[in-house]
Structures are given as structure tokens and as C-alpha cells.
Specification:
The protein is an all-alpha fold. Helices cover about 75% and strands about 0% of the residues. The chain folds into two domains: about 1-65, Orthogonal Bundle (Multidrug-efflux Transporter Regulator, Chain: A, Domain 2); about 70-128.
Length: about 130
Amino acid sequence: MTIAEVSEKYDLTQDTLRYYERIGLIPHVNRNKSGIRDYTEEDCKWVEFIKCMRNAGLPIEALIEYVALFQQGDETIGTRKELLIEQRKQLIKRMEDMQKTLERLNYKIESYEQLVVKKEKELKRVEE
């Protein structure tokens, strides 16, 4: 696949894909005879993984470390697992914080809705 096709498929800009490749998030992407990037299915799996992890809020630095460890081979399996466990803990914490924020927003919205209903009732009484 070309970079344009991968960009469209994963809804990432071509600049983002080039950046991810430059910093090592996507291992080396082969190029065709014309020098154009030729993404393999394996490359696309990396793009999908990186996009998923970034959407979950994982920092670039953690992903760079993960990819570097992956490239070192099976002797880093334990370290990679620990890195993912730590990132999961941080994600759970962010989700808990977001849930608290959502609850607070819901409370505020409900308070406004109750205020509106009260004002509407008062207006209805005045009109009668």
C-alpha cells in the first residue's frame, strides 16, 4: 500500500505516518523501485497498533520504548509486558478521572435543567 492509501485507511495524515516512521514507531517501511513507501500488511498492523495506543492516550515515549524492545527480540517479552501493564494502570486512572468529570458535568447539567423547569413554572403562573 502507498502512504496515501495507508493515510486514508487509518485516518492519519501522511506527515504523521512519516513522523512515526522517523522516530521509530513504525519499523522500517520498504520502498519500491521509484522510492515510494510500500506498506506491507505487517507495517499496517504497526500503524493500527500505534493509532489504537495513541487514541488511548499512551505517550509517544512509551510506544517508542515498546517498539525498540520488540525489535530486540523475545528476551524483552517480560519488560514489554511490564511496560504495557504500567500503561494500563495509567489509562485506568485517566478513565476514573474522566468518569468523575462526567459525573460532575451531569450534575451541573441537571442543575441547570431543574432551574429552567422552575423558571418555566414561575412564568406559567405569572401568565395565568
